[in-house]
Amino acid sequence: MKYLTRLSLEVQFKAALSTILRGLDFPAIKFLHVRAIAGHHTAFSIAPEGRPFTEVIQHDLPFFTQLKTLCLTRVNISDEDLRSLLRLTTWLQHLCVLKGVDANISWFEDCRDLVSFLTIDKAGIKNVVDFPPPLPHLQTLKLYHSRVSSPNHSSPAAYGNLARSRFSWMVRQTETNSQLQNDNRVNSPPFEMHLSVEWENRDVYECIKRSIEDELGSTYASLLRVKVCRAGSLENVVETEDVPFK
């Protein structure tokens, strides 16, 4: 495993990633994609239920801290554990999270808690030194918005606010670093957000898309790419979206 830089796992059984990879060394790994297959009664998780999540990561999966790309598809993970995981992956540049509603159906669910967790408030944008956000190196974010309305689902505008806040913070950070280094060259850092929107008819999709674009405004419109996906054909959404994960 000494020279392995990318690892993709596709699972159809109940297990924990930490149990499978415990004792293995991945000193060069930068890319990890874990995908649980729907329709196989799968309950695949990062850590065994009941174990201290952060301790499991640090002991059994220490390579998470060096990842630059992480894709989790239908992996069973709570909002709290996902936040804990992302606090450890400080070098992450590309993140894709598609949480499954149920292992036996092909739909995904929104990540309302994750949207809130990654959104940077105005105080954080203004003071990049004292208020570093989660995933300060994040360049590409891929999420999913369901047509189903529930308390766990984010409003369309929340995605626009997230994309704008991340880009604004990165620009501010670049400007601050340039001033500290007496460098007048300010290059806007890359940031893109890809959002797959489930839809039943075109009008619903267009309404969601407009809500996001209104929140972003014309200045930030290029930051977020909204694509439509039909219910019942979502299992390959990661592959079909053509996200430039490296």
TrEMBL record:
SUPFAM superfamilies: RNI-like
Record InterPro entries: LRR_dom_sf
Protein name: F-box protein
